Amino acid sequence: MKDFFCNLKFVTIIFLYSFISLLFVACVQSPKKTEDTSGIVALHDDMNKKHGKTPSYYANLAVADGDYDKAYGLYYQECRQGSVIACLNAYYIGEERSLTAYDSVAFGNQLAKSIRQSIEACKHNISLGCVNLFFAFETLDDDDEFVKNIVMPNLKGHNDEQIADKAISMTKKECQQDDAASCFFHARILRTIDHYADVEYFIDKGLDLGFVLAPFVRLPMQSPQTIDYFKRSCVLNEALSCRYVAYWFDNYENNSTRAKEFYKKACSLGLSTACDESRKPLYIQTDELGSPIINRR
User: Fold this and answer.
1) In terms of pTM, does the model score above 0.85?
2) How many angstroms from the chain centroid is the CA of residue 211?
3) DSSP state, 142?
């Protein structure tokens, strides 16, 4: 009988050990939860379909008009789709303007989630995911500890040079396949790495494909070499480009009449500050006594 109980005890111990071992293996081998990347894919599609005029575009207009609450909300829409770029834009708007109503904990969680979604997207060769990660790595050079403390641990184990190479390679290939958003991001990454990088081909192609944001790749806004890009974007009904062109005519060519035309167009496209600028009286050249100068033949 004693031997029987000893054997039973031994069998029980073996059974429990086997059960625990199987449970441990099952936990280890259970698939990790993968982040949903559908928002990033949809955003990329929307950028092409709407020629760049997604919520972030209208956030840019709101910033130009000084409506920072509206800008934050619009950036945050894209942030929730997984756009790290839009998350960062939303944060810097709130941070710079001390908009204390924003919940930094909730925002931090969303930024971390967007980075994880972008990692998953990049892993599956979704180019916008890799682009997001490139700009996430860029924030590590900033002095903002709040952002660093979120971004750094989420990027742990990922190599910035490998991400940059993959983002550059994928966006170039997609641009060659007439993906306008990828043309824009390719040029923007190149200009971020090197302020003098040759990006003319990608800007031209983006504009040819109707992408209104094509010139906004860290180009100097007011220069003879680049103002033509903004003229082309204005033809595509991009408000900020029209305003840049108006400013060019006003301040560099002393052509108030042409400037007013472009201010009016920017106003009609929803840029409120341009409406005020379009109502300014035209500059009239006067003599030393203040009388209008009449050109004589």
Assistant:
1) no
2) 15
3) S
Phi, psi dihedrals of residue 221, rounded to the nearest 5°: -65, -35
- Tell me if 164 sits within 8 A of 189, measured CB to CB: yes
For the segment 103-130, the average pLDDT, to the nearest whole number, is: 93
Q: How far is CA 150 from CA 77, 98, 134, 167, 230, in A?
A: 19, 19, 15, 22, 36
Q: How far apart are CA 129 and CA 271, in angstroms?
A: 31
Q: Which residues pair with 292 in a beta bridge?
A: 286
**Which one-letter amino acid corresponds to residue 103?**
D
In 3-state terms, what secondary structure has residue 291?
coil
Q: Report the interhelical angle of 239-251 vs 256-268 (nearest 10°).
A: 170
Question: Which DSSP symbol is given to 295?
Answer: P
Q: Measure the N-to-C terminal CA separation of the chain; round to a whole number of Å.
A: 131
Angle between helices 127-138 and 104-123 (to 10 degrees): 130
- Which residues are within 8 A (CB) of 241 and not within 5 positions of it... i.e. 6 or more apart? 212, 215, 230, 231, 233, 234
Q: Which amino acid is at 240?
A: L
- Reported as a single tens digit per residue, the pLDDT across 64-93 is 999 988 999 999 999 999 999 999 999 988
Distance from C-alpha of 127 to C-alpha of 196, rounded to nearest angstrom: 24
- The answer to whether 56 and 89 have CB atoms below 8 angstroms apart is yes
pLDDT digits (tens, 9 = 90+) for 250-261: 888 889 899 999
Residue the block writes with tokens 């108006």 = 246
Q: Retrieve residue 199's tokens.
A: 């990006």
> What is the rounded CA–CA span in Å between residue 20 and residue 39?
40
